[in-house]
Hints:
heterodimer; A: alpha/beta; 6 helices; globular; B: alpha+beta; two-stranded antiparallel ribbon; 4 helices; 60% helix; elongated
Amino acid sequence: MAIEITLLNEIQSTLVSLGGLITPDLAPSSAPSSIFEGYVLSLVLRAADLEGADIDYRDVESRRPNRFVFRASPGYIASRKRPYTHAIIAFPNKPILEAHVGVRVAGVAGVLHQCDVAVMKQEEADRCRAESRPGQAGQPGYWVSPRQTELVLAVECKFYGSADLDLDLARSFIGLVSDINRPSFHFVSSTSSNSVETLLTKKKKNWEHNVVPASTKEVTRLLNAFQTAFRNFKASYP
Amino acid sequence: MKDHDYEMTYQKLASTLNHEGLAWLVRQVTEQILMGKISVSSSHDGKKRVRKGKKTSTGTYSTEYTARERLALLLAATKHAIVDRVDMEAKVLSFFNETSESNIEAIEFYSEVEDELEVVINQPRTVERQAHAYKIEEMLNFLLEGVKDGH
């Protein structure tokens, strides 16, 4: 009994200290999805690097940035509102690719969807940038989005605090994949959920769970899946 | 520790998290707790087994979390939201620095919906956040051990 009371007192004083340590900097007011998307982008690029690609970075004006700016809400690939950064993936003697965070992509039905991480041919990205027109005095803006047929790899990222992902997320992903019909479209989450995993497996969708730096096995498996996508891309251009 | 103690600790931790801007995390864990632990029972060749006047049900069912399990869930979720997030920041920063030809001053995530800078990652801030996060992790590990041992 005495041990229990001591433990309870220690727990209470730990909780008080904990409160003092959780600064606004460490406690985002909503789930840190943006950082997770940035992290998944870094895994996509690492997979490309492992497959022999050169990696570089550009902003929408084709400058090499020293401040990387990514979208935290969906946007158009040609937007010049901020100097958004994208990665350039160059495999020897293959079409150049670009990797973007949070761009809208046109699905099979013509509907625009947000792609958390999208890898596409640079030719398609260039076409969208050339055909888009930002708003000017008396003229509304006009934005062209990449077509889903030109995606080499796409990822839906979910950072969830709780260990059981909302099943709605899996249902949404299944709907999304029906309109962005690419073989290498992955559902990647920071935690796990039996229901979500059962549903996605039964529906034969690509997924990976517990993707955080400390989870070596899951991160390696995901890197391998991304590498397979790049391997297939290279093989389609002999 | 008795169920009442686990419950009281849960409420104190939830209150701390709500106060410190992590209400979204408490909500997600609450949703999980309300859902319960989902299981799918096997039906043994599809035949229902009858035991002494009771029919064994087949299909999907949910079991409620115990008070100890609820506390463990909230502690694990807190660790994930704070510590794993900071680790990801550090990985992102180090990867882009490693692969970029120019020296990266910062990585920014901008929301056009709120028209604001949501997150900024740079070396000094990430190092400071990591130091804080690891102190929090020590405390959470201490609490998790207490829950696991179930004194």
